[in-house]
Write a structure and sequence with these properties.
The complex is a heterodimer of chains A (259) and B (380). Chain A contains 7 helices and 11 strands. By secondary structure, chain A is of the alpha/beta class. Chain B has 3 domains: 5-117, Orthogonal Bundle (Butyryl-Coa Dehydrogenase, subunit A, domain 1); 120-230, Butyryl-CoA Dehydrogenase, subunit A, domain 2 (Beta Barrel); 234-377, Up-down Bundle (Butyryl-CoA Dehydrogenase, subunit A, domain 3). Classes of the chains: A alpha/beta (259), B alpha+beta (380). Bound molecules: flavin-adenine dinucleotide (FAD). Chain A: Residues 23-212 form the Electron transfer flavoprotein alpha/beta-subunit N-terminal domain.
Chain lengths: 259, 380
């Protein structure tokens, strides 16, 4: 089984993040860039499937030159190879354009299974896996908390607010995963050393047959017009307990979907 | 000092593991004096126990410096897991790797490298610590078996569920000059007559495993001799020289952890209407702490570099251990002071750092012994 895992480099969500003053895109130059957290779960899931069923795991990343750091780190966890789509014209691409580029790259891969994180911590739109499936004409099993493979049949437990749904599809398909699906491994030293020698193929837009005008800020179907700092937190609700405090707390938790 | 990409990546991976997986749970193990098997298993999966060993025995094909970096990053968060790794690799598995026969290596190293099993190093005795040459434990050949009698004190990793052996330093005869002939013998766990006494109640390193061991007519095959007969003294000196660099790395980790926690707390805690970090008295303390950690780190990097280059490193290793354990102790004292009353509470990491620091000036050669070694290297 050949599995392609989508890996995105994002600014560390644990640190201060900002948008650029000039074009309102994510500031990647000054940020501490890391692998999108959910993608580590996607990599782990792919590696477990490879360990159980054999095959090959390939990382696919679209991102600037600097994304090579995250690609090496992803490879140190155990995947076999990586494809890096890098092109200056990609800066500022919207989700639709990104899906066009990634679909073109995936079309060259002939993967049985494509695994992605359910969302990236910078964009948080959660649409990319669906868009890719649509462009490739294959099934999308999104938001998985469990994935099993039996021959060419994929079964996914799809996490929802109420519980989970069981959905199946046959390969090839796109699966996106939440962080409930597994515990990603830490890279070993052996893995770190091996990652240095693993093949990383770099592809430009021309290699993929995608025109520069279709992507980037110019080709974007949506644009951020302005941005500002998040307003400071307001006071919040205070529950006075006059006998019904417990009920009020539970009601609050219920509206926030905690219970 | 610029680390190459691989060392840097290893450091980051261990740091992530320590912060995400060790920090949230270790306080509880510490409080209960319990051994964190699951963390050790995860460290095994990361290959930490195989770092300096060749891949043919399931090691990671790294080197001793890689081990030191891992120890530093672990100890920055917790010393119990760090000493468990240090003792397992540098004291437990290393003698087998350095002095063992091919057969002994094949039998023991793969499980040790994967962290599935732990080996312990039995040198210290109730009556002999610094003066380890005074060893009283005896081993006598009886046909094709060694018969061992005696006891060992303070042996790390000797009583866990996954401990598979202890290497025992024993008197096997008398040298021509009248001194004791010392040899090292592998005693597998569970050998009849070999008793692991209940764990000590320790001041620090409370989530690590330390026991007194008793040997009462313990019989092991003659083939369990590690290396040559009569080489025991030279063997443990070599192991301890290296081990000092590892303990220095661990000490630097603790010293740096004190800096991390102090910066965090100094920014948060307010007194007299300001962050305490605004007081120069606190800033200067933290500056000194950072300086101590930095200098000690350079000292262990230097000792490790010399050792890996095959150059003499005895003096540098002793200097690194002396400097780094001092730094750890001083930083633990200052970090606790910066935390005020909260620093005296066990639930704050600095409380643990304070309790874990003292042993660093004692284990694997006391500070006095380090000075003795340095003085000897200076031909005094
Ligand atoms: C938690 C823990 C784990 C340990 N793990 C292990 C282990 O895995 N394996 C192992 O073999 N040992 C282990 N040890 C033992 C440790 O290495 C010894 O405790 C240490 O070497 C000191 O020996 P001692 O306790 O007998 O002290 P002593 O040697 O009795 O020293 C007492 C004091 O006298 C000083 N002193 C001694 N000789 C001199 C001298 N010539 N000049 C000046 N001062 C001197 C010492 O510096 C010290 O201050 C461990 C100890 C502890 C506490």
């Amino acid at each position: 089984m050949k599995i392609v895992v989508l890996v995105k480099q994002v600014p560390d969500s644990g640190a201060e993040r900002s948008l650029r003053a000039d074009d309102n895109t994510v500031d990647r130059a000054t940020a501490n860039n890391v692998i999108n957290e959910m993608d580590e779960y996607a990599i782990e899931e792919a590696l477990r499937l490879k360990e159980a069923h054999g095959g090959e795991v390939v990382i696919l990343t679209m991102g600037p030159d600097k994304a090579t750091d995250s690609i090496r780190k992803a490879l140190s966890m155990g995947p076999d190879a990586a494809v890096h789509v890098v092109d200056d014209a990609l800066h500022g691409s919207c989700a639709i354009a990104t899906s066009k580029v990634l679909a073109a790259a995936l079309a060259q891969q002939n993967a049985d299974l494509i695994i992605a994180g359910a969302e990236s911590t910078d964009g948080r739109v959660q649409v990319l896996p669906h868009m890719l499936a649509e462009r490739l004409g294959i099934a999308a099993l999104t938001g998985a908390r469990k994935l099993t493979v039996d021959g060419s049949t994929l079964t996914v437990e799809r996490q929802t607010d109420e519980g989970y749904e069981v959905v199946t599809a046959s390969t090839p398909a796109v699966v996106s995963v939440w962080d409930t699906i597994n515990d990603p491994r830490y890279p070993s030293f052996k893995g770190i050393m091996a990652a240095k020698k693993k093949p990383v193929q770099t592809l430009s837009l021309a290699d993929l047959g995608v025109a520069a005008s279709e992507v980037g800020l110019d080709g974007a179907t949506s644009a951020v017009l302005e941005h500002g700092k998040r307003p400071p937190r307001t006071g919040g609700n205070t529950v006075e307990d006059s006998g019904d405090g417990g009920v009020k707390l539970v009601e609050f938790l219920a509206t926030e979907k905690f219970v | 000092m610029q680390l190459n990409d691989e060392y840097q990546a290893l450091r980051e991976a261990v740091r992530e593991f320590a912060v995400e997986s060790v920090a949230p749970v270790i306080g509880d193990f510490y409080e209960r004096h319990a051994f964190p098997y699951d963390l050790i298993r995860q460290m095994g999966k990361m290959g930490l126990f195989g770092l300096p060993f060749p891949t043919e025995f399931d090691g990671e094909g790294g080197d001793y410096f890689a081990l030191c970096l891992a120890l530093e990053e672990l100890a920055r968060v917790d010393s119990s897991v760090a000493i468990t790794l240090e003792a397992a690799v540098s004291l437990g598995a290393m003698p087998i790797h350095r002095f063992g026969t091919e057969e002994q290596k094949e039998r023991w190293l793969p499980a040790l490298c994967k962290g599935e099993k732990l080996a312990a190093f039995g040198l210290t005795e109730p009556g002999f610590g610094s003066d380890a040459g005074g060893t009283a434990t005896r081993a006598v050949l009886d046909g094709d078996q060694w018969v061992i009698n005696g006891s060992k004190a303070f042996i790390t990793n000797s009583g866990t569920d996954i401990t598979c052996l202890v290497t025992v330093t024993a008197v096997t005869g008398t040298n021509p000059d009248g001194s004791k002939e010392l040899s090292t013998i592998i005693v597998p766990s569970g050998t009849p007559g070999f008793t692991v006494l209940p764990g000590y109640s320790k001041v620090g390193w409370c989530a690590s495993d330390t026991h007194e061991l008793a040997f009462d007519d313990v019989r092991v095959p003659v083939g369990n001799l590690l290396g040559e007969r009569g080489r025991g003294f030279a063997q443990f000196l070599r192991i301890l020289d290296e081990g000092r660099i590892a303990i220095a790395a661990l000490s630097v980790g603790l010293a740096q952890g004190c800096v991390d926690e102090s910066i965090r707390y100094a920014r948060e805690r307010r007194a007299f209407g300001r962050s305490i970090g605004d007081f120069q008295a606190i800033q200067f303390k933290i500056s000194e702490m950072e300086a101590r950690a930095h200098v000690a780190r350079l000292a262990y990097y230097d000792a490790a570099e010399k050792m890996l280059a095959g150059r003499p490193f005895k003096k540098e290793a002793a200097i690194a251990k002396l400097t780094a354990s001092n730094a750890a102790m001083d930083n633990a004292r200052d970090a606790t002071q910066i935390h005020g009353g909260y620093g005296f509470m066990n639930e704050f990491p600095v409380g643990r750092f304070y309790r874990d620091a003292k042993i660093l000036e004692i284990g694997e050669g006391t500070s006095e012994i380090q000075k003795l070694v340095i003085a000897r290297e200076l031909d005094l």
